[in-house]
Amino acid sequence: MSSATTTTANPEHDPAGAQQHCAQYLTFLLDGEEYGIDILSVQEIKGWQPCTELPNTPDYVLGVINLRGAVIPVIDLRRRLGMAPRDAGKLTVVIVIRHAAADGEKVLGVVVDAVSDVFDIAPDQVSAPPSLEAGLDGRFVRGLATLADKMIILLDLAHVAGDA
Amino acid sequence: MSMEEFHQIFFEEADELMEAMEAELLEMVFEPDNPERINNVFRAAHSIKGGAATFGFAEITETTHVMETLMNEVREGAIAVDRSLVDVLLSAADCVKDLLAAVKGGGPADAGLAVATRTALEACLERSGAAPQTSPPQPDSSDEDAAAAETGAALRRYRIGFRPAHGLFRTGNDPLHILRALRELGDLEVEVDTGSVPTLDGFRADQLYLAWTLHIATGSDPEVVLEAFEWVEDLCEIDFQEVESRPEATPDDAPAAVPAAAPAGAPAVPMEAGSAAGTERRSADAGTLAAGTAERPDSAPHRGERRAAGAESATIRVGIDKIDTLINLVGELVITQSMLSDLGEDVELCDLDKLREGFQQLERHTRALQESVMKIRMVPISNVFNRMPRTVHDLTARLGKQLDLVMHGEHTELDKTLMERIGDPLVHLVRNAVDHGVEMPEVRAAHGKPERGTLTLSAFHAGGDVVIEISDDGAGLDTERIRAKARDRGLVDAGEQLDEAQVHQLIFHPGFSTAEEVSDVSGRGVGMDVVRQNILGLGGSVEIASDAGRGSTFTIRLPLTLAIVDAQLLQVAGQIYAVPLVSIVESFQVERANLKSIAERGQLYRVRDDYVPVVDLTSLFGIREATPQPVAGGLLVLVESGNGRMGLLVDDLLAQQQVVIKSLESNFRAVPGVSGATILGDGRVALIVDVTGLARLLRATGGRRGQDGGLTGIRAA
Amino acid sequence: MSHILVVDDSSSMREMVSYTLTTAGHSVMAAADGAQALRIAEDGVDHFDLVITDINMPVMDGLTLIRELRGLRRYSYRPILVLSTESSPETKSAGRSAGATGWIVKPFDPDKLLGVVGKVLPQ
After folding, report:
1. Which residues, in sequence order, are bridge partners of residue A73?
2. Could you report the predicted ipTM of this complex, rounded to two decimals?
C-alpha cells in the first residue's frame, strides 16, 4: 500500500472541470485486476487479522473482528466475486467501509490482495459495465473507468454483505 | 441552550407530574382524606401551571390554574373528595395531557375540549360556593408601564421619610439597594438621621439604626417610586408626600395612593403581629408534609425518577447516589493508576508483588466501574407499574367489575430499554386479567368469593433475572374450553393427551386467539402470542400457573439488562464461545458408558433418566477451520432452554465472567444460534451462544447433519 | 460574578433560571427542594451570595427553607429571593416574616430576573 495516498491527475481532462465533477476512488488489486471504490465510503485500511467465524454463513463471510470495540463483519472479496480463494499474504489488507443500510449506517471490512492508488475519475471517463464479465458478479459493478494507461473496474460494495 | 431544549425539559417534567397526579387521583378514591395526596395533586397542577405560563402555553396554563384553584379548595376543606370529583379531575388530567401532546407535536390544541374541561372544573368550584377564581399569571407588563410613565410625564417631587426596622438586615435587604433604585428614577437627595444610634454598649453590629429623609425629583408616579420599598414595606415606616405636584393633582391624593405607608409613629415592625396567622398556616402545611414524608420515606427520592412510560426516550434520569459511586470509583482508579505509574518509573524485581497487587486493584476497580456504569441504565419498574392503576380504574368502570390493584416491588430496577419494551406486554396481561380473569361481582358472590377481586402485580429480582408476576384471584383458565378451541383450530389432534400445563401454554399459540373474539378490552388486535413473542424477544420468558376457580398467575422473567450477561467461556476446537450462566445446568466429564449412538440421529448422552442430544458446536455452526472432536473423554456442558436440554461438547471450560453484549445486527445481521458477540480481554471477538436458538438450529438441521457425528435430531423429553 | 443557589422542584424552572444566571456570568448550583438546599448550604462547601427559591415545594417548602437559612450564621444577612407564582399580599407578608429579601413573580422573565438579581447582589 505504498502509493495509496498519491493522487494522480488525469492529463486528458480539463483541470477546472476535474475539480467540479471528479470523484476520488481508492483502487485495490484482486487477482491482478485493479478495482476502485468511492473513497468517501472508505473509513480506514487495516492490516489483515484473523476473524472469529460466524455460524452457518456463506464462505465469503470470513467472520467478525473487533474494530475499537465495535464488532464488524469481514468479507473476502475474492470469494464474493467468485474468484479462487488465496491465503493472506504480506500485502493483504482489510478495507473498512461505511455504508447506509435500512437500519442505519453499518461498517464492514473487505479483504483485498493489496491497495493500489487513489485516482480522480470524472463521470465521462466511466462507461457502463459490459453485460456480465465472465466470472465477475455483475451486481457490484458500477462501471468501467478508462484512464490513460489502464482500465479500472468501479465497484459499489454497499450490498456486498447484504444477502450473506 | 435553545428554547426548544427548555420546552423539552418542561414536557418531560409535565409528563412526569401528570403521571404522578393521575396516580394520586386514583388512590384518592380510596383515601379521600389523605392530605398528602391532595397536596401532591395541587402541587402538580401548580408546577405545570408555572412552567406553561412561562412558555406561553395559554390553554395549559388556564386549565391547570382551575385545577389548582379547585385543589386548593379541597386542601382547605371547602370541597370534599368523592368519586365524581376525582372523575372530573381525571378527565381534566387527560385534557392537560392532550394539550401537552398537542404543543409537543406543534399541532393545534383542542381549545373546545379545554374550555369544556374548565367548565366542568368550575362547576365543581361553584357547587361548593367557593370564591371565584382569580386569573392565572400572565407575562408581567409593569416594566413597560413604568418606562412609559417615565418618558411621558412631567417631573414630580416627593419627600419620603424612610425609617427601616432595626432588623432589616435579617431579611437580606440593604437600604443602599433601595437608595440605588431610587437614584435610577431621578435626582435623589438624601438626609440621614442618626438619632436612633445607641451608645456603644447598646450597639449591635447587625442592627440598622439609621433613618433617612429622601427628596426625589422624577417623572415617575408614586406607585413606581414606592415599588423601591416593595420588599420592605412591612419592615419600615414610610412617610410619603408629594411636595410639588402637577397642577391638576391635589396635594392630598398622593398619600392616599400609598396604602403601604405606615402611619408615623407606629411601631417599627408592624408586620410581625399581622402576619402571624399566615405564618402559622404555612408551618401547619409544612408539618403535614413532613409527616407524610416520614410515613413513606422512599417516596421523595423516587418521585423524580417517574417518567412517562410508553415512548422510548433518549435521556435518562440518574440518581445522585449512582453518580457519586461513579465519581468515587473513578477516584480510586486514578489513585491506582498513579500508584502503578510510580512503580513503573523504576521497576525493581522486589516490587513485583506490589505491581501484581496494583494490577489486581486496577482490575477490581475497573470491574466495579463497569458495573456502576451499567447500573446507570437501571430504572425502577414503577415507571411501568404506574400506568396500571389507570388501566384498571378505567376497565373496571367499563366492565362493572370491582377490583383492588395491589403492587409490590415497584422499586425493582431493570434496564431502561427493557423497562420501555415490557410496558405494552404488561398492560396487555393486566387488561387480560381484568377482562377474562376476574369475574363479575355477582358471579364471585355466587361462588362464595368476595365481590371485590384482587389483582396483584409484583416485581423482584431472582438470580440474574427480574421477575414480574401478574396474579388474579379470578376464575382461572378454563382448560376444557381451551382444549375444545385448540381442537377446533386444529392446534392439537383429537386424540392427543395434554396435561394442564400444556393446555395453559396453548393460549400463547399464534393460532389460538382470533380476530373475531379479540375484545375491545384486552384485545386491541393483539393476541397473547404477540405478548409472548415480545417477551421472548427481550430474552425473557412467560409462564402461566392457573387454578380453576382460584385464579391465574402469569410469571414473566427478564434479564436484568440487555447490555451485559454473566457467561461461561468455553473453548471448542480453538474457538471461544460465551454461554450465559443462566442457561447452564451443569458440566461433567463424558463417560463412554452413558453415550448412545443412534443411526441417523447422532449421539445421545444419558443424564440420570434423560437422554440429551450431544452437540458439537463447530459442527452445528458449520465452522470451517474446526476438526470434528472425539466425543468420549471430552467435557459436556448441559444447557437448558425453553425448548429442552442438550449437552455441548467442549474442549475446555475457561473463565466465568461478565461479558458486554455487542449486537451483530448493528453492523451485520442476526445470526441464528448466537445472541451477539463480546470482546475478550485480549481484544478477540467471542460469540455469545443463544441456547434457545441453538435448540431451534438443532431441530432444523438435525436430520441433515446427523451423519457427521456431531449432533442428533431428537429432542430430549 | 456571584455564586447563586437556585431552589425549585420544577426542573424546567431550575434549568431556565440557572441558564439565565450562568449566561449572565454567575455560577449556579441548583436544588430540587428546601431540604436539599439546606443540606447544600449547611455543608458549607459552597458560599452562596444569593439564594433564589420557589415557595411551593415537596419535602421542605421555601418559607421553611428561608427561616432555616436565616438561622445559619452565613446566611443570616444574605439576600434570599422568592421566585413564585404566588403574589398575594399575604404570601409576600409571610415571605417577609420568614426573612425573604424580595420576590420575583412567575411567569419567569429572564430580564426581570437579572434586573432583580443585580439589585440585591453586593456591588
Report:
1. A64
2. 0.83
